[in-house]
Structure formats: C-alpha cells, structure tokens
TrEMBL record:
Species assigned in the record: Nocardiopsis composta
Source taxonomy: Bacteria, Bacillati, Actinomycetota, Actinomycetes, Streptosporangiales
Name of this protein: Beta-glucosidase
Binding of substrate, residues: Q20, H119, N163, Y291, W402, E409, W410
Classification via PROSITE patterns: GLYCOSYL_HYDROL_F1_2
EC number(s) stated in the UniProt entry for this protein: 3.2.1.21
Keyword Lipid metabolism: no
GO biological process terms, semicolon-separated: cellulose catabolic process
Amino acid sequence: QSVPRFPGGFLWGAATASHQVEGGAEERGRSIWDAFAAEPGRIAGGATARTACDHYRRYPEDVALMARLGLNAYRFSLSWPRILPAGRGAVSGTGAGFYDRLIDRLLEAGIEPVPTLYHWDLPQPLEDEGGWLSRGTADAFAEYTAAALDRYGDRVRRWGTLNEPFVHMAFGYAFGVHAPGKALLAGALPAAHHQLLAHARAAALIRAAGREALLVNNLTPVRPLPGGGEAAAAAARAYDALHNRLFLDPLLLGAYPELPDGWDGPLTGAVHPGDLAEIRGSADALGVNYYNPTLIAPPGPEDGLPFAMPPYTDAFPDVPTTRFGWPVVPDGLHELLTGLRERYGAALPPLLVTENGCSYDDAPDAGGRVADPERIAYLDGHLRALARAAAGGVDVRGYFAWSLLDNFEWAEGYTQRFGLVHVDFDSGERTPKDSFEWYRAWIERAR
Ligand code: GCO
C-alpha cells in the first residue's frame, strides 16, 4: 500500500516525558511521583523512576536514534523540579543545563524541540501547599514558565504547557491511582480549573515572548453501550463532558460544559471572576493524545459515578487489544479529529497529534531482533486515519508516536512497553524494534 500525502511542513515526531525517561533523580528536586513511588503498593513491582531509561546521561545516543528515524520534531517534557527544585525561586544551573544540552543537540540534528512544561512531575514542596487543588500552583507555574522561556525561548518556538490535565485530575485527584494519590471524586474538579488557569497564564507569557502555546489533552470518542437506551446515552454525555469538554469548552468557547449533578459545585467554587476570559482562546494549537475509544454504560447503584466503564470488548468482542487491554480502533482517530472540527468549528485552532501508540510484551529474540508486528499495524492504521482526516480538511500539522523509548509507565512501572526502541532496564541498552524501521521508511516516503 502506498503512503498517503501529508501537508507540507508536517511534523514527524516521537514523544517522551521527563519522569518517564530521564532518571538522574539525584540531580533534581523531589516530585510527587517520587513520594508516590515510596508508598508501598502504589506502583507495579515497587518500581521507581530514579534511573528509568537514563536518558539524562544517554541523551546523545537517543538523539542519534531520532536522527536515524528521520524525525523533524521531538516532544519531551521539562522537569519542573529539575529546573526549580523548590517549585519556585532559584533556578538550578545543573538542572537547567541539561535541557540546554538536549535542545542544542536536537537543533544540530535538524530536529525541532517541542517541550511540554508539565508532564505530571509536580515539585513536592508545591504539593505540600495543596498541589493543583490550590490556586497558588497556577501562580507558581507562571513563575516556572517565565524561567523556562528566559532560558530556552531563544531556541524553542512551540511550547506545550500542560500534558493531559484531564488524566492528571482524574487519576491523580479523583481516583487516586496516580500521584498525588487523592481519591476525591467530584472534589478533584478544582484541579481542572487551576490547571486551565495555569495554562492560560503560561500561554500569555509564551505569546508575549513571540512564541506559540500548545495545550495537550487526552481525548476519546465515547460510545454508549449498544442497546443501552437513554440511560446509556445520558451516561455517555456525562463522561464526554468530564473527559473531552471539561478543558476544551472553556478553552475554545469560554464556558464550562454542563456537568452531571453534584459535579459542578466543586468546580464553580474554584472559578473567580475573569478567569474564563483569561482561559478562552489561550491556545495557538491543540495537542491531541489519542489511544482508544471508551465504552460507557449506565452506572450501577454502587458506582458512585454518573457512568460505568465496562471493557470495550464487552460490546465489541472482535476488536483487538493491547497489552494494557486497550482496544485498537484506528478509525477512532479520524472520528475524533473530524468530531473536534464539527464541535468547535472556527474556534478550533490547528491540531497536532501529540501522542498515539500501544504497549506489547516486546523482547529481543535470540538474534537480538525485536519483532513487533502489532505496533506496526497500529501505527499504520492510525496514520492512515489521520491522513483521511487531513484530506477531509482537518488542519492537523504533526504526529508524535508515543513513545520513542520503552519507559516508566506510571502506576504500571516498567510492565508496559510503548517504545519504538526497546530498552533493557538493567543495562540501559537500546534496541530499535521492527516498528522503528517501519516508521523510518514511512517518514522517508511521506516527507
Ligand atoms: C500522557 C500519557 C503518557 C503515557 C501514555 C501511555 O499523559 O501523556 O499518559 O505519559 O505513558 O499515554 O499510557
């Protein structure tokens, strides 16, 4: 099959995040993920990210891999506690120097650095003051953004602000399965508003510096349980509001969506006059992280939530799943991108697919080769879905595979391998998988 055409200047990338790949924990401040990992039972296998992929030391080798892949962009994140160990105040010269070296190395290789300021590793001192439940964290984020712009703004054009504020709020503050481990359900909603406010304040600084601000969120097409009638449809609307609209409606339309009963109180309590005006229109581009659609059923009496989330395969048994159990539905990406354009129309800024990928149990065979045909099928299907959306008029300007490297997958520790490159977590050795060669060939033909 031939490779479809992509718009000129399209960004061909791969993505990582500081806490998931860097290691080098002794040369940065403590984050909420260090504290969370120290709590027994929180992370699979009791793993920590103190060393992770040791990207902190091996970044030259990793940039060489990116160059071999033919990337023209790399999405990574800056570790806030590496740059500002206390969360505010003094910049660490050692910590900040790491990103100078990384950025320079990328530029030498012809690869655009696309940093995200925050991918979940909040400095612990800020968590001690309330974390994202506190409005003060948005102020601290603005201070951090100013420091990062001052240091790297000469070389970085596109700035991601926050990564997946929905997942951070839901997993970290509503369900407690990610750091900081709070299970507050609707009480988590202030963490949504304060993240949006933080984004808006950072974006104002980024724009004032003549640069572009990008908000990255996780989005999912929501499918009501087939045959579930109005109850399933209502549950699906509730889930869509919380997952997809909670951040995009205020960002693009200037108003929060209608939330399920009992969920709007904690949110509106956090909103001050003028906040929504600050938030509206504060993104020059939107980063879309897409992995899979979500099946939603009416809640049972015990659920405590306005929806239930049965496994996707309960309704669609023929759909393949990844090691994580996530359904593989490439058309979902086309549906998502075209759906955003339908929902937001002219208010929708240009899009970038900032994450897309899958985990499998990849291991080198006796000859040292890592065969991952499922990942190749996954990437091929999703890139074709993206190309169809672009051909249909959706303004999508880049694609970043998640991930360049196998890495620390949050609560799953090292058990979910998402990389184009296999990492031996004992030796640090990198082995490009078959999907690496496949993506290299795809980019070569598509560029
Ligand atoms: C994110 C993602 C990544 C994950 C990936 C696979 O927030 O951007 O959670 O950090 O590793 O989505 O789960």
